[in-house]
Amino acid sequence: MNDIRDPHRESGLLHAGSPLSEAQAVMVMLHGRGATAESILTLAKEVAVPGVAYLAPQATGYTWYPYSFLYPLEDNEPYLSSALKVVSRVIEKSGKPTEQIVLLGFSQGACLALEYAARHAQRYGGVIGLSGGLIGPDGLVRQDTGELEDTPVFIGCSDTDPHIPVARVHYTADVLRRLGAEVTEQIYPLMGHTVNQDEINFVKMLIQRVAKKTV
Asked: Peptide bond before 78: cis, by omega within 30 degrees of 0?
């Protein structure tokens, strides 16, 4: 039975790529609403890099939090806090320093990855948000502390995404820059809510760079 205070506590975890004991880098992959760990791991096949372990947790009920990421934070509790704990547990399970870890998410998973990085600011190998933004309503006063220490961050989104306002993408990039990240923001005309080849190319380049640094 799920713990109503920590609904993702028993979430599953899939692993692809190199064994953790041999991995030079780890990519934590967070799926979107209504999707699965299996589905986000299909992206791992497109960016497969030797020496990289890909870890994909599964959200309980196929969603990390119940309402829009633009709703008041309390509306998405306790699911949001539980989802953030999942990311912490996966990072701990990897056994790697955060400099060797890349956080990646699509859609709801992108929101979760970006939010985690802001709330737990330190040097990561990278943070990739594909069609997502920081979580919370407009006008929220953020309480982020810490320093991202030039962590490379990529945020890609369409200017016509029905779920992600472009203004939220710009805001997210600004917040992460203020936390010390090296942010690449790409807005793709008329792309919709999906992932394109340019984004995949960037993801592969970044994970190759992280893995190479640790050889």
From this structure: yes
| Cα 102-40-108 angle, rounded to 5 deg | 80
CB-CB neighbours of 212 under 10 Å: 12
Q: Indicate the pLDDT class of residue 40, thresholds 50, 70 and 90.
A: very high
- What is the Cα–Cα distance from 147 to 163, expressed in whole angstroms? 29
Instruction: Assess contact for 158 and 134: CB atoms under 8 A.
Output: no
| Predicted local confidence at residue 160, as pLDDT | 95
Residue 149 CA to residue 166 CA, distance in Å, equals 25
Could you count the other beta carbons within 10 Å of the beta carbon of residue 50? Answer: 10
Sign of CA dihedral 10, 125, 26, 40: positive
Percent residues over pLDDT 90 in the chain:
94
User: Does the structure show a pLDDT above 90 at 4?
Assistant: no
Nearest to 105, CA basis, from 72, 60, 144, 154? 154
- pTM recorded for the entire structure: 0.95
**Low-confidence winner among 44-53, 100-109, 130-139, 153-162 (lowest mean pLDDT):** 44-53
Token match 């929220």: residue? 140
Longest CA–CA span in the chain (Å) reads 44
Q: Where are the alpha helices (DSSP H) in the chain?
A: 37-46, 79-94, 108-119, 166-178, 197-213
